[in-house]
Amino acid sequence: MAQCGMTGRAHDVKDGIALDSFLLASQTQSLREKMEHIDSIITDSKKSPLLSEQSSGDKPSVSINHVDKESSSNNISSKDSDKESCRKQKEIDDMHGSIKPLVFGREEVRQDICNMLRAPSSIINKNYSVIGIHGISGSGKTTLARHVCDYEKKEGKHFSLIKFIQMSKTFSVHDIFREITGQDRKDLRSLHKELTENLQGRRFLLVLDDLWVDDGNQKERDILLDALNAGDSGSRILVTSQKEDAAAALGAQKQISIPDMKDEDYLSLFMHHALHDAVDDDGKFGRIGRKIAEKLHRSPIAAVTVGKRLQKNKTINFWETTANLDVLNETMGALWWSYKQLGADVGRCFEYCSTFPKGYKLERDNMVNMWIAHGFVKTSNETEELEDVGQLYFDELLTFSFLQCGDPIIYSQNHFTIHDLLHELAERVAGSDYFRIDVNGFDPRSGISPEVCHLFIQTYDTADTIGKIPELENLRTLIIEEEFRREEHTSFDGVLSHELVEEKLFDGIFRKMRKLRVLTVGIKLYRQNQGLSISDSIGQMKHLRFLCFTGISKGAGLPSSIKLLFPSTFNTLYHMQILQFGFCFKVSFPEDIASINLIHLRMLGLDFDFPYIGRLTSLRWIPHFHVRKEQGYELKQLKHLNSLRGDLKILGLENVGSKDEALEANIAGKKRLTGLFLDFKNSCNPDVEADVLEGLLPRKDLEKLVLRHYRGPWYPDAPKNLGELFLFRCSRLVYIPEGSELFAGLRSLGISQCTWDALPDHMERLTSLKDLRIISCDEMELLPALPQSLENIRIKGPNMLWESFQDEAHVNRQRIEHVPCKKFNPPITNYGIKYEGW
Fold first, then answer.
1. Please, which residues bridge with residue 797 across strands?
2. Per the record, where are the segments of Basic and acidic residues compositional bias (predicted)?
3. Tens-digit pLDDT profile for residues 279-322
4. Cys staple from 354: which of 250, 251, 430, 779, with CB 3.0 to 4.6 Å?
5. Cβ distance 338 to 305 under 8 Å?
6. Is a pLDDT exceeding 50 seen at residue 275?
């Protein structure tokens, strides 16, 4: 069980003398007592006079929130600039994720660890050995471990496979296998078999970051180590943890305690974040910065969070005021001070993150949509979009390190996590409105407060847990991460049965929890009957705005999907904004769904199959639109969906008969679209396909274009400034026209399963091209002259091309000599492309 330690709502009250009380407590109490005192005063605080003090001359803004939102409002007022902003933001996010952070004062310990990793192991009967790094939260263990990984990848000689995994508080061998193999839908036994096969003959380095263990996961640890023993001799597992016993549980023979940073190294780290590239001509900031750094007692996380906040307000008055705050003497106090600089709305969004357990992998769009559902995101004018402002909130939390960017998850973009200490801070400021039930369950005698507003259930397997959920009538958020175990189908009366207990549970939720705004349910697919009927009582959930079902198949031979049956009362949920259903679900709506009244629906994240989607004019995103020769499924249904953003996939384009029909989709009017996926799957008249394609393509500012099964005799010269082009089983692009706007800004070109004998002529005209991928184009023999701008080339599968690269004198080999990064996969590989990312 986890419950936030404070009571009350911090956003509804003012400061008073809160900070003064905290400063006095900091001088007279132990750390535990100080933290208890923080609990008692944050409830009464939102803004301190000391924290908002400004000089009368400069009047700097303490928080960047207002400034950023104001500047962003100007961007949002123009849809064209919005689109350009989205494109640039995507590019920035992609590039930012690849930037390696500077590391201060860790070179000596990094070298010690690398020496341990490469030293011969004394263990005879195992192909791996374990090394541990332990230290308190915020001491820099993760940064050090990443530094080690980056060094080994750059050196590139000792380990053929390197993988870094951020662990959650719950040890799950299934999740670890999923991340290593890149497979999301397989059962544990299949993953174990695949991993052991692909590790054979490979010396690997696996980092398990922030590992937690307990007696209950001993069997899972044994399964993990059994699979890893398939690696080559000399393989290593590097474990970071807060305590020595975590690495010891995996058999670590060598462990090091992460040392404190030296004073000058720590000052360099702090000033790097506080000043960045600014010039300190007279040294005033340096002198004040040293005083602030001394207060932080060499805590790396405090240096980063406080430093980044100071960077946004580089005025002497603000720095001097900060230097005099005794609240900075403790790490948690420093983090609390940084939190206080956030705007009220951004602060509330950060508090909401405490809904999720420590180490939980957050997805940006999902979090923003939840914030919107709760009304946390505010716009200042009619031209602003809630999603755009929510992204600004998220980016502010990321900028000031309240959120951290993690590695990409399977089938997803980057995920984000919260540092353990910042998660603890979020719990404290969030108060008793938030409650979690973790894998250990909870003591029913302690109960759940009937006033709780946000509940996260990581697992439940008792009648007490199940029965209490519908009683929480004040809930605004209910997230059920796990479902029942296969062996324990527990009903409300505590009797083990094979009934579909979810149906009873949902009916209770829908009838009693009418204030609910966010409902997310994860279901393990183990049942024989694969239908789940949603109760008519869902129509009573008038405030529900976010509804999500996720599912994971468990066990060999189990079904891969479940059918969700929705009643006609679902149509009355007028405030519904987000519908998300994972790949494991087939959704069935009532026959009268054509009269759907979900006029506020913003995102339809499901494989939908109902007509007249054009009535849902508030839609911002849909997974795809499938054109049919049936009423209600025509391409013109897209005509008025002009708020669509991001990528749009259109299938069944062989059912469109002319350019005029294509123009009815009004793609050009959807100013926030950044990508198009167009599929002409079945045979059609090639000339008609070319006309349809020309009618669909906007004239400018499309970032990404994917064409499947396009057989047209020509490629329209549109849109301008295209960044990415991917052609799958398409007719040959004969040559690159001189001065073509279609290719002027092309950075990435992919060609897959095309029956081309050569790339287009005049490839050298693609002067912006950086990435080229050729996949399974078996008839291709020769490469033309390639542009000098090319940085990456990846070729997989063409037999003749593959063979030509084995000959250093071959013209194909010579034409790629100038390309820095080259990756080749033979037509048949033992390991598959998914393992290249190690």
1. none
2. 79-92
3. 777 889 999 999 999 999 999 999 999 999 999 999 999 999 99
4. 430
5. yes
6. yes
pTM of this structure = 0.77
Q: Which residues contact 17 (CB under 8 A, 6 or more apart)?
A: none
Please give the domain boundaries of the chain with CATH numbers for all domains: 2-101+263-428 (no CATH), 107-257 (3.40.50.300), 438-581+597-606 (3.80.10)
Instruction: Report d(CA 592, CA 569) in Å as an integer.
Output: 10
First to last CA, the chain: 36
In sequence order, the 6+-apart residues with CB closer than 8 A to the CB of 224 are 173, 176, 177
3-state helix, strand, coil split of the chain in percent (to 5) is 40, 15, 45
pLDDT tens-digit map of 649-704 = 999 999 999 999 999 999 999 999 999 999 998 777 899 999 999 999 987 778 99
C-alpha closest to that of 147 among 177, 108, 95, 116: 108
Helix (H) or strand (E) holding 521: strand 518-525
Residues 21 and 41: beta-carbon distance below 8 Å:
yes
State the amino acid at position 749 in one-letter form: L
Q: What is the dihedral of CA 351, 355, 360, 361, to 10 degrees?
A: -70
How far is CA 191 from each of CA 172, 230, 402, 489, 838, rounded to the nearest angstrom?
13, 13, 34, 26, 16
171 half-sphere exposure, CB direction, 13 A CA radius: 21
Count Cα atoms within 13 angstroms, Cβ side, for 248: 8
User: Please, what is the Cα angle at 561 between 558 and 567, to 5 degrees?
Assistant: 135
Angle between helices 79-98 and 64-76 (to 10 degrees): 130
Per DSSP, helices labelled H in 400-530 are: 420-430, 463-468, 501-512
Residue burial 129-147, b: 16+ Cβ < 10 Å; e: rest: bbbbbbbebbbbbbbbbbb
**CB of 795 closer than 8 Å to CB of 823:** yes
Which amino acid belongs to residue 668?
Answer: A
Q: Which amino acid is at 290?
A: R
